[in-house]
Specification:
- The chain has 149 residues and is α/β, with parallel strands linked by helices.
- The chain has helices at residues 58-69, 86-91, 111-121, 132-148; strands spanning 15-19, 36-37, 49-53, 74-78, 99-101, 106-109.
Length: 149
């Protein structure tokens, strides 16, 4: 799943960019784990997903590719994990990217969990085969790319 980090020209999903260092993101409440709810009940749901990412990270690239394939809009927030920004650490105490905040406020961390969530909740287009043997081979290749790139 390596390749160029840019969105394919055929993707209808526009991407907005914001810099986390500029303070463009609102303060968020602490989370107890990697899957949490970002927004308090009084805060309205976001208009689109928000992906905290690092442009050169292959794990972030994998999530961006899956979002584009699923034709999902996402606000891209460049996060520098080495800065240890408190608002980001509240989303993912491990301090690693990628982190996806869904339109409903669900917070997901780690590329494998994010990709699995997107595949399970957005059936079209289907990115993983239904056949168990073929699916195992795809997952083996994804693991190989995760390790090598």
């Amino acid at each position: 799943m390596g390749g160029d980090a840019r969105t394919r020209a055929t993707s209808p999903a526009p991407i907005r960019t914001a810099s986390a260092a500029s303070g463009a993101t609102p303060p968020l409440r602490p989370s107890a784990g990697s899957v949490t709810s970002e927004a308090p009940a009084s805060r309205p749901a976001m208009a689109m997903h928000r992906l905290y990412h690092l442009p050169l990270s292959p794990f972030c690239r994998k999530v961006r590719v899956v979002l584009a394939e699923k034709r999902q809009q996402a606000e891209m927030v460049e996060e520098r994990p080495w800065d240890g920004r408190l608002d980001f650490l509240r989303l993912n105490p491990a301090g690693r990217v990628p982190v996806l905040v869904t339109t409903s406020g669900l917070v997901l961390a780690e590329s494998a969990a994010i990709v699995d969530f997107l595949e399970a909740t957005m059936s079209e287009p289907e990115l993983f085969p239904a056949d168990a043997v073929q699916r195992a081979e795809v997952l083996r290749l994804v693991g190989w790319f995760d390790d090598k790139f």
